[in-house]
Write a structure and sequence with these properties.
Number of domains of chain A: 2
Strand order of the largest sheet of chain A: 1-2-3
Strand content of chain A: under 5%
Largest interface: A-B, 26 and 22 residues
Number of strands of chain B: 2
Helix content of chain A: over 70%
Number of strands of chain A: 3
Largest sheet of chain B: 2 strands, antiparallel
Distance between the termini of chain A: 50 Å
Helix content of chain B: 55-70%
Low-confidence stretches of chain B: 1-5
Oligomer: heterodimer
Radius of gyration of chain A: 22 Å
Mean pLDDT of chain B: 88
Order of helices and strands of chain A: HHHHHHEEHEH
Radius of gyration of chain B: 15 Å
Largest sheet of chain A: 3 strands, antiparallel
Chain lengths: 211, 104
């Protein structure tokens, strides 16, 4: 495989289906200097950001975030302080997913909700597996209460500790996941409204011009 | 040493592509060559196709029937209006700036 073919692989498959042939033709006529290679890689990155479905990129981000969180949360000194941050960041992330879907795909509110739910599902997967494999993580709060935290992602809705939790781990993990999915869809709807507002604002600015 | 100007509306890849296509349909490599000749801007393939993708999505240009590996693009009526509007704004800005410079 030549360097030019490798560079072409920096672009999303669906983009290559549409533009790959002619892009390869243009690339074949340019000498491969460092500047051209950097330019092609930069273009590939931009296409991944703006050509792929937004939920795939957001979902991949959440997947990595959850995996990282599962590693960090096992240190009980870190876990409680990360819960509010986790909830806030997750909410903003799903809101952004909904807004981005509307702006990028010019889709409706329903699709934005679906995109946020799909991104959330990608983030839930490591949590569910970790819970089924290791059981829940117990966090002792400063006020004396005890909570079971289902991975960093599911710490948005911590479940009060119950003695049978160990046996019910799988059941609770699925219940929590469904609740998170429903909440994610709502955040996606809200994000869609935000996206429409931004689109209207951009349209207005475009009409008004740069001055 | 004077700094070489590499940014600004006159080097915007989308406007350069639209300006190139205003002279008739062209494929990617022909656009690159013409832009290099009339604007002195050496667009890389990644920058060129990032801009082409966006222009197609906006409906300002459209692909034509491919001949071999090359597919020409042409300006749409929306693209024509957009380009004319942008160039008109640039002209107003340029004449305003030049008037101001004459008074210095």
């Amino acid at each position: 495989m030549t360097l030019r073919n490798l560079l072409l692989r920096a672009y999303p498959r669906s983009w290559r289906d549409e533009y790959g042939e002619e892009f390869a033709g243009v690339l074949a006529q340019k000498p491969l200097t460092l500047r051209v290679v950097a330019d092609v890689l930069g273009g590939g990155f931009m296409q991944h950001l703006f050509w792929d479905d937004p939920w795939k990129i957001c979902g991949a981000g959440l997947f990595v975030w959850t995996c990282l969180g599962l590693v960090l949360i096992r240190d009980s000194r870190l876990a409680p302080s990360m819960e509010p941050l986790s909830a806030m960041a997750l909410g903003c992330f799903l809101l952004a997913t909904g807004a981005w879907t509307v702006l990028r795909k010019k889709s409706g509110i329903r699709e934005a909700g679906g995109a946020a739910a799909k991104a959330a599902m990608a983030g839930i997967v490591p949590s569910v597996f970790a819970t089924l494999l290791w059981g829940p993580v117990v966090v002792h709060h400063a006020n004396g209460s005890t909570w079971l935290v289902w991975g960093l992602f599911l710490s948005v809705i911590p479940v009060p500790s119950i003695p049978e939790a160990g046996r019910l781990a799988g059941h609770l993990a699925i219940t929590c996941s469904l609740m998170v999915l429903a909440a994610s869809a709502v955040m996606g709807f809200a994000g869609a409204l935000l996206g429409r507002f931004i689109a209207a604002l951009r349209g207005g600015l475009r009409e008004a011009g740069p001055c | 040493m004077a700094r070489k100007t590499t940014s600004g509306p006159a080097t915007d890849p989308e406007l350069l592509i639209l300006s190139s296509l205003a002279g008739g349909p062209k494929h990617g490599y022909a656009m690159m060559q013409e832009i290099g000749a009339f604007a002195g801007v050496d667009l890389g393939p990644g920058t060129l196709y990032t801009a082409i993708t966006r222009l197609v999505e906006e409906g300002w240009i459209e692909p034509m029937e491919a001949s071999g590996r090359q597919r020409p693009y042409r300006l749409t009526s929306g693209g024509f209006d957009y380009l004319r509007g942008q160039l008109e704004k640039m002209r107003q800005l340029a004449s305003f700036g030049l008037r101001r410079l004459r008074t210095v």
